[in-house]
TrEMBL record:
<dbReference type="InterPro" id="IPR013783">
    <property type="entry name" value="Ig-like_fold"/>
</dbReference>
<keyword id="KW-0732">Signal</keyword>
<feature type="signal peptide">
    <location>
        <begin position="1"/>
        <end position="22"/>
    </location>
</feature>
<protein>
    <submittedName>
        <fullName>DUF1573 domain-containing protein</fullName>
    </submittedName>
</protein>
<dbReference type="Pfam" id="PF07610">
    <property type="entry name" value="DUF1573"/>
</dbReference>
<dbReference type="InterPro" id="IPR011467">
    <property type="entry name" value="DUF1573"/>
</dbReference>
Length: 137
């Protein structure tokens, strides 16, 4: 009986040694080309604008990568802002734009954003403009 217990213990310990071996994983590093678009300004203060007069805000950028860049999506944060942008491919070293037109319907201070997605960056860029709408007298 004692020999059977020792044999079972040896067998159990032998099998357990196989389960302890762990596979060492090599971490994968995801690289992206940083800074492939250089924005002239990511935040624009438009100052005071009269109520009811739409205001055009233009964000300019330059393609600093070695590949052509395409703007794939431009999304204003609210319905009070319309957006336009360079539709064609922007070659390396060339410039493009994202335009936002704010309707200035409500008086008071405002801060609005436009989210821009490009083929160059994994994360979208959030552009901001702010100012004050002055009520008509």
């Amino acid at each position: 009986m004692k020999i059977l217990k020792i044999s079972m213990l040896a067998l159990t310990l032998g099998l357990m040694s196989f389960t302890v071996i762990s596979k060492e994983e090599t971490p994968t590093v995801k690289t992206t080309e940083a800074g492939s678009i250089a924005w002239k300004s990511e935040t624009i203060d438009v100052g005071q604008i009269p109520q009811g007069t739409p205001k055009l805000i233009e964000f300019q950028f330059k393609n600093t990568s070695n590949k052509a860049v395409i703007i794939t999506n431009v999304k204003p944060a609210c319905g009070c802002t319309a957006a336009d942008y360079t539709k064609e491919s922007i070659a390396p070293g060339k410039s493009g734009y994202v335009k936002a037109t704010y309707n200035a319907a409500a008086a008071g201070s405002f801060t609005k954003t436009v989210t821009v997605t490009t083929s160059a960056d994994v994360n979208p860029k959030v552009l901001t403009f702010k100012g004050t709408v002055v009520a008509k007298s």
